[in-house]
Amino acid sequence: MTEEQKQQIGIQKLFTKDISFENPNSPFIFKDKWKPEVSVELNNKSLKLDDQNYEVVLSITVTIKTADKVACLAEVHQAGIFLIKGFDEKTINEILGNYCLSILFPYSRETISELIQKGGFQPFYLQPVDFNALYAQKLQQQQKDEGKTKH
Is 89 left (phi over 0), alpha (psi -120 to 50) or beta? Predict the structure, then answer.
């Protein structure tokens, strides 16, 4: 077997770990002039389950305000269990911080959109996310932080 034949990435399971929706100022918020201010927060974490399986969780929180009042808050923690074997630790971290999140994102996007629309608000479309760029930024920040602690 060659090294490439030993390397494997697979999706074992995809699942929603947590969903939350708040519409705290209804029904009065629907009478206000609609000038939405949207904030999006992304977080992720991973957990090594055994020698070759990892749980990855992508958390997205969308808060929409209008007239300084929270119109709605939608949050989803989309998770997956991924088989990753035959790679060095650096590559595994890249897969967890980029590839796996890219797999989970469309599920999160759909759930967020549905929650907001079912809450009585206009359709909301979460824009695509470049997880490769975010991962690169995270690595740069870690290098900067490590440099500060050495001095």
Answer: alpha
Strand partners, 42: 60
Go through the domains of the chain in sequence order and give each one's CATH number: 3-150 (3.10.420.10)
Q: What pTM value is reported for the model?
A: 0.87
Name residues of the chain where pLDDT drops below 50.
Answer: none
75, 18 contact by CB (below 8 A): yes
CB-based contacts of 43, cutoff 8 Å, min separation 6? 58, 59
Query: Two tokens at 19?
Result: 């969903």
pLDDT digits (tens, 9 = 90+) for 96-126: 999 999 999 999 999 999 999 999 999 899 9
